[in-house]
């Protein structure tokens, strides 16, 4: 596990962008019960952390997708992060809506992106991967070449990993489930007894009931 994953995991825990409650599960918008909650948008409220995320996402893109000619953010969580990254890299930026506007030009993609352009997608959080890959599909239908995706965090659910494989999209993240659990253990946020509970949930989150 690289240092950045552990450093960022600790930062997310410190600002409570990630919360772990094995004994008092959250209910996600999907209705799933979960001992784990992540809201990376909180990082935007802390200037030093916001800059850290921007710079490290840029490093990922430069290392993994140096051919990228433009940046696309996924609405709404990654619009701000995507714009910050595009600005830092000096690249064009657009963002992809979850659904087309019902008025005006009825845009699904906001901003200008040229057909055939090599685009890297910026996302804040990967859970099942459904909304992220829907954005990829919208870009592909617009004639864009999606070279890959970078994200702040992934739960690493098997269903998401399979979906990204099937869509032929390379995903690289700043941190992930393993790094967060490791840091949460180190700092005493959770106990060793909590780890099997979290692992059981992660294997099949849609069926987990706490």
Sum up the structure in keywords.
210 residues, alpha/beta, 6-stranded mixed sheet, two-stranded antiparallel sheet, 10 strands, 22% strand, globular
Explain the overall architecture.
By secondary structure, the chain is an alpha/beta fold. The protein has 7 helices and 10 strands. It has helices at residues 3-14, 47-64, 79-89, 130-141, 158-167, 177-186, 194-203; strands at residues 18-20, 26-27, 33-34, 36-38, 70-74, 93-96, 109-110, 118-126, 145-154, 171-176. α1 packs across α6.
User: Strand sequence of the main sheet, in spatial order?
Assistant: 7-6-5-8-9-10
The SS-based structural class is alpha/beta
- Terminal CA distance reads 29 Å
Oligomer: single chain
E-strand count = 10
Shape: globular
Unreliable residue runs:
none
Q: In this structure, how is the largest beta sheet organized?
A: 6 strands, mixed
Q: Helix and strand succession?
A: HEEEEHEHEEEHEHEHH
The percentage helix is 25-40%
Beta-strand content: 15-25%
CA-atom Rg in angstroms: 17 Å
Please tell me the overall pLDDT.
92
Summarize the structure.
The protein has 210 residues and is of the alpha/beta class. Helix content is 40%, strand content 22%. The strands form 3 sheets. Strands 7-6-5-8-9-10 form a 6-stranded mixed sheet, sandwiched between helices. Strands 1-4 form a two-stranded antiparallel ribbon. Strands 2-3 form a two-stranded antiparallel sheet.
Write the layout of secondary structure elements.
Blueprint: H1 3-14, E1 18-20, E2 26-27, E3 33-34, E4 36-38, H2 47-64, E5 70-74, H3 79-89, E6 93-96, E7 109-110, E8 118-126, H4 130-141, E9 145-154, H5 158-167, E10 171-176, H6 177-186, H7 194-203
Helix pairs in contact: 1-6, 2-3
């Amino acid at each position: 596990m690289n240092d950045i994953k552990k450093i960022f995991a600790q930062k997310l825990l410190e600002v409570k962008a990630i919360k772990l409650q094995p004994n008092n599960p959250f209910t996600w918008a999907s209705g799933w019960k979960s001992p784990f909650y992540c809201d990376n948008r909180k990082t935007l409220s802390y200037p030093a952390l916001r800059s850290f995320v921007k710079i490290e996402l840029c490093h990922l893109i430069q290392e993994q997708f140096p051919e990228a000619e433009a940046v696309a953010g996924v609405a709404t969580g990654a619009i701000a992060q995507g714009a910050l990254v595009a600005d830092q890299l000096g690249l064009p930026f657009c963002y992809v809506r979850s659904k087309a506007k019902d008025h005006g030009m009825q845009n699904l993609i906001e901003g200008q992106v040229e057909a055939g352009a090599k685009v890297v997608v910026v996302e804040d959080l990967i859970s099942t991967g459904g909304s992220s890959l829907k954005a990829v599909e919208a870009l592909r239908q617009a004639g864009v070449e999606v070279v890959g995706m970078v994200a702040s965090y992934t739960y690493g659910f098997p269903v998401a990993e399979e979906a990204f494989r099937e869509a032929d999209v390379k995903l690289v993240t700043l941190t992930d489930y393993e790094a967060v659990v490791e840091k949460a253990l180190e700092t005493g946020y959770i106990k060793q007894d909590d780890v099997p509970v979290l692992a059981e949930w992660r294997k099949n989150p849609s069926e987990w009931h706490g």
